[in-house]
Amino acid sequence: WCGFLLVALVSPRMAGLRVDFGLLLEPLGFIKVLEWIFSIFAFATCGGFQGETTLLVSCKGVVNKTVTAVFAYPFRLNTVVFSAPDPKRCGGTWTDVYLVGNFSSSAQFFVTLAVLVFLYCIAALVVYVGYKHVYQQNSKFPLTDLAITVITAFLWLVSTFVWAKALADIKMSTGASIIPGIESCKAPGTTCRFASVTSMGTLNVSVVFGLLNMVLWGGNIWFVYKDINLHNQSNRIS
């Protein structure tokens, strides 16, 4: 797409900026604006998250001491350690306790796609608004736009469901179910109780925006298809 845009800008035959915001009122342009906005919300709600899970620990010389583990994007939980209950580490019975799981690949796939979509929408809107005549006269532009739209819709489908599965696992790895797996909590005289975990509502919203992006890009396939010669030829044949 960027290559074709560059050709459009440097070609003497097609050069000439003609700003026309009229296409933004048509489905093709209006959906692209929505895709641009929703991609921002997708990577912001996922990539900007930071939370913590908290336990209450009682051990030698310590009663209901709060220990926390702070986690954030890209959710490499296996590198997140709980703070020690006290400087003496419960008389030597407390060892470093890490959360379980590495969900960075799923989270980064989702966020990277959203960022790339954000950049692509900007490039597409520049062409729609400033080079509408080039887009309509050169069949390569609609064909390229259609191919990218189909691929992007598929990637939104894959990345959203992969991220939704990872989010479910993140909730498990930071919830009350982690206590039976903590060896330090099994030491004589030591008890651990789950206290709280940061609400993951914004991460749930990121999944919703992923689904919305998938629907938008899927529906956009039809509007882009209408601008290619194959559609025009089928109308003439009919």
Q: Judging from the principal axes of the Cα atoms, what is the shape?
A: rod-shaped
How large a portion of the residues is in β-strands, by DSSP E?
5-15%
> What would you call the structural class?
mainly alpha
Biggest β-sheet strands, sense, barrel: 3 strands, antiparallel
Distance between the termini: 31 Å
Q: What is the C-alpha radius of gyration, as a whole number of Å?
A: 26 Å
> What letter string, H or E per element, gives the SSE order?
HHEEHHHHEHH
Overall domain count: 1
Number of DSSP-assigned strands: 3
Tally of helical runs: 8
Keywords:
single chain; 238 residues; mainly alpha; 3 strands; rod-shaped
